[in-house]
């Protein structure tokens, strides 16, 4: 009886249902677990950690005091500790604790991070007077505040200097914004104008029409730009003098004092004396700086705004390119081409293209788009700039086109499936009412197939936005703080190199000279890349659902 019921249970298909449900559940749990890990590791990076002061004594050596942020604690075997160079005694427990402390003060300690044995630490404390200085270069500095100087003269000492330090840092940050605007926008526009005049002169020379009148006009415009630069140069010198006016003297835990210009400091904190709400304010400020600032220190500090902008812009440009080409190819294959061996071969080729490794597309983009097409454009349209390339070098346009080639098979297949699902009766009814084939296609068939097109576009964006390998060859670089959109003609610079979140993760995670400092940035950037792709897909899904509801009545 039991055997019969078990056999009926198998025949009912219930095992398949349970296996499918279990597989989906495991996939969902793994995905959520990965997102949770990335979120915790990434978002925790922005919290201002307390500064720990401990006494560290290696057996047989004099003790010394360490100050820094406790980053990681792990249990390690004695054998592994001995192989890492720690003087571990022969006798003792099999496992010992190893702590990673961010000690900062790179110019004094040599490294930002230090591994220590937890059992050799004693006298743990969190002195409220300890100061953490985040610098534009050389990482953090940890110590105590000695005095504050203005133009070389001491104006406050000890803890009394702390409120004045915060006021002067706010002033320095305002001056930094003015300097950035002056250097990047105003002086950058002048440099762009001078380069444009140089290329214009060279072009007239190549055409043999550089006469005295044209030369005089160019010289007059150049003189006006140089005069404007002279005026801005005086303002720039004045701002730099104000920027470097104040300095602070801090003492590290070993007693060594160091004078640091406030122009080199991003912010100063006393985390051990801060309340939870104060730390929460610093947390959101750090998060906003991460999203809006340029990277610093070989991409291991600062923000990633250029990478966010480059990723979104390249993906949107790819979508604008890939959609018409993919849709037109699918329309031809489904509506116009004869269904014969050649058409079947083309479909097989399109399906096979979807499985080609991404790096192959990168090599194709470098060879065809950059060297062949870009080199030809330079010879025809920009001969005055040669031998320096304009479009004959990796850039935004070629990266977007390469991604479009990579994603176009997905759009073709999805659009074809959408066209195939439209009832033949709708086409015949439109033709019976006197519409031509093209009118039927553009007014009946394609609007109803729009949700399928959007599905293809969603899949294309999801794949293209996360690609890294081909982009390394056709336009994405380690550092490109200048955005491809600015106030200089032609305003959108397709020839400019860009940053990308995926490549930024690779560079920070595997090419960084400071691995420990880069590790939390890898998680934070990965979380942001997932969010960017999710937002792009969510926008497309919303539009697709709207179109699906719009044409649902016609579909039935």
Which structural class fits the helix and strand makeup?
alpha+beta
The first-to-last residue Cα distance is 48 Å
Low-pLDDT ranges: none
Task: Give the % helix.
Answer: 55-70%
Q: Report the biggest beta sheet as strand number plus sense, adding barrel if it closes.
A: 6 strands, antiparallel
* Total count of strands: 13
Give the overall shape.
flat
- Which fold does the CATH topology of the largest domain refer to? MetI-like fold
In percent, how much strand structure appears in the residues?
Answer: 5-15%
The name of the CATH architecture of the largest domain is Orthogonal Bundle
Query: Could you name the CATH class of the largest domain?
Result: Mainly Alpha
Number of helices: 17
pLDDT averaged over residues: 86
Order of helices and strands: HHEEHEHEEEEEHHEEEHEEHHHHHHHHHH
Radius of gyration: 31 Å
Q: What features would you describe in this structure?
A:
There is one protein chain. 60% of the residues lie in helices and 14% in strands. By secondary structure, the chain is α+β, with helices and mostly antiparallel strands. It folds into three domains: 52-128, no CATH class; 140-267; 305-555, MetI-like fold (Orthogonal Bundle), CATH 1.10.3720.10. The strands form three sheets. Strands 6, 7, 8, 9, 10 and 11 form a six-stranded antiparallel β-sheet that branches. It has a five-stranded antiparallel β-sheet with strand order 4-3-2-1-5. The two termini are 48 Å apart. The mean pLDDT is 86.
């Amino acid at each position: 009886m039991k055997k019969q019921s078990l056999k009926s249970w198998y025949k009912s298909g219930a095992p398949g249902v349970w296996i499918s449900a279990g597989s989906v559940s495991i996939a969902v749990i793994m995905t959520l677990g990965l997102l949770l890990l990335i979120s915790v590791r990434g978002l925790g990076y922005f919290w201002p950690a307390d500064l720990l002061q401990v006494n560290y004594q290696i057996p047989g050596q004099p003790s010394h005091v360490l100050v820094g942020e406790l980053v990681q604690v792990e249990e390690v075997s004695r054998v592994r500790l001995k192989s890492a160079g720690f003087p571990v005694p022969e006798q003792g427990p099999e496992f010992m604790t190893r702590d990673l402390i961010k000690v900062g003060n790179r110019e004094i300690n040599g490294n930002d991070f230090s591994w220590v044995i937890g059992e050799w630490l004693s006298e743990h404390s969190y002195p409220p007077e300890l100061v953490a200085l985040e610098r534009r270069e050389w990482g953090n500095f940890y110590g105590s505040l000695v005095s504050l100087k203005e133009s070389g003269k001491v104006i406050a000492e000890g803890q009394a200097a702390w409120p004045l330090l915060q006021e002067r840092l706010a002033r320095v940050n305002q001056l930094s914004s003015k300097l950035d605007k002056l250097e990047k926008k105003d002086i950058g526009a002048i440099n762009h104008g001078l380069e444009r005049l140089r290329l214009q002169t060279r072009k007239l020379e190549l055409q043999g029409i550089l006469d005295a009148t044209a030369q005089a006009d160019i010289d007059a415009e150049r003189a006006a730009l140089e005069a404007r630069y002279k005026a801005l140069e005086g303002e720039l010198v004045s701002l730099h003098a104000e920027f470097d006016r104040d300095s602070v003297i801090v003492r590290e835990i070993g007693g060594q004092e160091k004078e640091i210009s406030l122009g080199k400091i991003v912010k100063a904190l006393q985390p051990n004396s801060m309340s939870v709400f104060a730390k929460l304010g610093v947390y959101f400020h750090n998060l906003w700086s991460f999203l809006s600032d340029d990277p610093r220190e070989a991409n291991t500090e600062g923000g990633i705004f250029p990478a966010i902008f480059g990723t979104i812009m390249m993906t949107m440009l790819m979508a604008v390119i890939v959609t018409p080409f993919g849709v037109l190819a699918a329309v031809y294959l489904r509506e116009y081409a004869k269904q014969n061996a050649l058409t079947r071969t083309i479909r097989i080729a399109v399906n096979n293209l979807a499985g080609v490794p991404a790096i192959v597309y990168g090599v194709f983009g470098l060879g065809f788009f950059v060297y062949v097409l870009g080199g030809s454009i330079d010879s025809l349209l920009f001969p005055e700039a040669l031998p320096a390339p304009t479009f004959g070098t990796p850039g935004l346009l070629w990266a977007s086109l390469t991604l479009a080639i990579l994603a176009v098979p997905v759009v073709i297949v999805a659009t074809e499936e959408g066209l195939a699902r439209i009832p033949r009766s709708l086409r015949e009814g439109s033709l019976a009412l006197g519409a031509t084939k093209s009118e039927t296609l553009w007014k009946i068939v394609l609007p109803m197939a729009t949700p399928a097109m959007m599905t293809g576009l969603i899949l294309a964006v999801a794949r293209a936005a996360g690609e890294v390998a081909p982009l390394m060859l056709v336009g994405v670089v380690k550092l490109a703080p200048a955005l491809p959109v600015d106030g200089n003609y032609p305003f959108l610079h397709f020839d400019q190199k860009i940053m990308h979140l995926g490549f930024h993760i690779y560079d920070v995670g595997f090419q960084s000279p400071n691995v420990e400092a880069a590790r939390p940035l890898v998680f934070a950037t990965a979380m942001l890349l997932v969010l960017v792709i999710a937002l792009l897909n969510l926008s497309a899904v919303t539009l697709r659902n709207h179109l699906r509801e719009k044409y649902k009545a016609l579909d039935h």
